[in-house]
Amino acid sequence: MLIRKAYKFRLKTNPALEQKLFRQAGCCRWVWNQVWWMNQRRLADKQRIIRYHEAAFWLSLWKQSEEYGFLREAHSQPLQQTLKDLDRAYRDGFDKNQPLKRLPRKKRKFRQAAFRYPQGVKLDNRRIYLPKLGWVGFFKSRDISGTVKNATVSYQAGHWYVSVQVEQALPERVHPSTTDVGVDLGVANFAALSNGITYDPINAYRKYQDQLARAQRALSRKVKCSANWRKQKRKIQQLHHKIACCRFVRQLDYKLDWRGWMLIKVPPHYTSQTCSVCGHVSPANRPTQAVFHCQACGHTEHADTNAAKNIRARGHRVLACGGRVQSDCPVKQEPVGSREAVPPTTSTEGAGIPVL
Prior knowledge:
By secondary structure, the chain is of the alpha+beta class.
């Protein structure tokens, strides 16, 4: 099977190169905001918004003009990719099937600094060729395998990074395990498994909460956009970046797929109020955060472990009947009285909110 994988490395920069990178990112931000303002006026007048092809025409006119001639200093591909991203954002914003749809917003300076090359990127050991920027060194922390498809350059917490996406061919894999596990993510416990194992919470934010508060108070006392203000803001960005690096789950789905495992997400409704033994559902079944006590059959267990067992059972019903599960009944199965889990035909392993 063909998969896409990203390798992210920190670039070796100097003041001259950083100026070019910021200028490239600034041109992309300017193009986004310019078309965004045009669409805002069109929406106010109840007119059709600008799509990609019309926006690309405007881009060519701006690059030929004297007023906006600075756009010629930026490579054309990242500018075009910015317009494609904006067009996709509008399509998603008007898509009725999107659960969290919203229209795109204006990009603010010093907040979004990134651009993408869809082609023309070359790798040579510890350096990468970026069109119109030349060869740039990077800290190579691991080997890169696969065909390079695109590269994204971004600025985070005072450093520039490059994320290289490659395409790899992997053989179809089937994991040898014949067991499965349900995983429930929560607050008191980071993860609770249906086999009784629990993991303590990471509390990444709480760990740095006081340090972050002091840094933000120091920022409020400085003159905005001054040199000390920028230096202090960079410290705050580094703290937020450190907190974000401590979090989990996002990469689990595709990593399991590479290894032949299966991740199934099911609705979490009432899993913490449902007895995993008799199926009785009641808010009174959970008298405290940590304890589950069924009012019907008297079953007592750790609340998160009981929820993980319900998640595992719902995952079995998805495997047996197909489709998504709404509460306790799959869409392709009539309601039944028994809550006995159907053994899966494929081994499963995973984590999520919630998963099998």
